[in-house]
């Protein structure tokens, strides 16, 4: 019988030793034996780049590991692979480029860097013949990049629906239980889900970066951040959440990536989701991604989308994949291999929901429905509530090009009986809408 395999010693460097970096080190130490048993490699943190080595750390870095000098990390011959867990575009971008050029594989948790500069970074990685991986940059612990690149390689994924920001999902879930937007956001900040400045979360910018990455991998064609039509949750009001409940739906901030007729559409926006849909059950700071493809029909992945140890799990998984596949194999290549056009603006088709506040006068309903009919938009469901001389109308509209729906709603907004700007969002439903 063969004796136990002797471990290959792999020196790891961390760019950053904060929430995620310290958790990566903890996992590598505490699960070192498991990793060694599974892979035959012992991953050992030998360097970690920080700004302030005197700061208290949640897990000790070890003697001589912390440094403020990037050159010490880059030039250390013991460093075999690097995890970029510092965030920001610069200096992270420059450091990653230098490491790749120096022949060091890099794994990154930095969605803004991968979404904005992925094309250049992958071309440098490819020239240098080293791997660049980025699982932790999207949905933290959920292994969606691996599933798309490996497990679903022959599935022709043509639609990706995702709840990819934990903070906004937490806020919308809280509003469902009666909280206001401001109270719910304050709670998300207190629980540590939101960014220090939560603008990126609530404006949809964080979700847009994650959807650009997911769509690029799913469709094999790079989607730039500027191509992602983005709308946040700032204008979602308790009245919209209550009306959604009455219609049997919930409000969620969704990323929706579609490949239709060979053209790509990627958007982030609030949407109404049918209660029976898997995404409606995603509560609090969890994330979920629904992948739809020719041969798989639909696969839903759900799990923690933020947090130190949750994100570190994905970083460690990428480190293990690098050591397990270095030298040969397609996973060192850029996932994007073709250039697809963008779907014409307004041609993306979806059912939709509109909330209207109108004067309670004869003929209002006729005016509203005639504007919709003029743009070939059909009403699937209507709920009316009467107030004191005014009324609210909540309409679910059948699937139609979103541009035509938006034009009809713009005309309706201009009617003298319409008292406030309408609230228009897509609907996600398995009903034949
Ligand atoms: P963090 O706690 O703020 O840690 C950042 C680390 O990077 C710190 O150790 C910091 O040093 C170091 N650093 C930052 N700028 C530096 C510079 N110019 N030179 C040297 N060191 C520098 O951030 P984090 O939460 O761990 O996030 C890290 C990355 O993971 C980000 O890209 C983030 O988007 C991504 N991510 C985080 C989560 C999460 O839930 N936290 C989830 C998914 C993805 P000091 O410690 O000395 O300040
Ligand atoms: N602020 C982000 C979120 C953290 O709420 O999802 C993970 O990227």
Folded structure, characterized:
The chain is 35% helix and 27% strand. It has 14 helices and 16 strands. Helix 1 packs across helix 12, helix 4 (92-101) runs parallel beside helix 5 (111-128) and helix 7 crosses helix 8. Strands 7, 8, 9, 10, 11, 12, 13, 14, 15 and 16 form a ten-stranded mixed sheet that branches. Strands 3-2-1-4-5-6 form a six-stranded parallel sheet, sandwiched between helices. It has helices at 19-30, 32-39, 70-74, 92-101, 111-128, 144-151, 166-176, 181-190, 199-202, 205-219, 238-246, 308-325, 364-374, 402-413; strands at residues 8-15, 41-49, 66-67, 79-84, 106-108, 132-133, 157-163, 228-230, 249-260, 263-274, 286-293, 297-304, 349-359, 379-386, 390-401, 423-428. By secondary structure, it is of the alpha/beta class. The model has no long low-confidence stretch (mean pLDDT 93). The site of L-homoserine (HSE) has 11 residues, from helix 7.
Which helices and strands, and how do they pair?
Layout: E1 8-15, H1 19-30, H2 32-39, E2 41-49, E3 66-67, H3 70-74, E4 79-84, H4 92-101, E5 106-108, H5 111-128, E6 132-133, H6 144-151, E7 157-163, H7 166-176, H8 181-190, H9 199-202, H10 205-219, E8 228-230, H11 238-246, E9 249-260, E10 263-274, E11 286-293, E12 297-304, H12 308-325, E13 349-359, H13 364-374, E14 379-386, E15 390-401, H14 402-413, E16 423-428
Parallel strand pairs: 1-2, 1-4, 2-3, 4-5, 5-6, 8-10, 10-16
Antiparallel strand pairs: 7-9, 7-11, 9-10, 11-12, 13-15, 13-16, 14-15
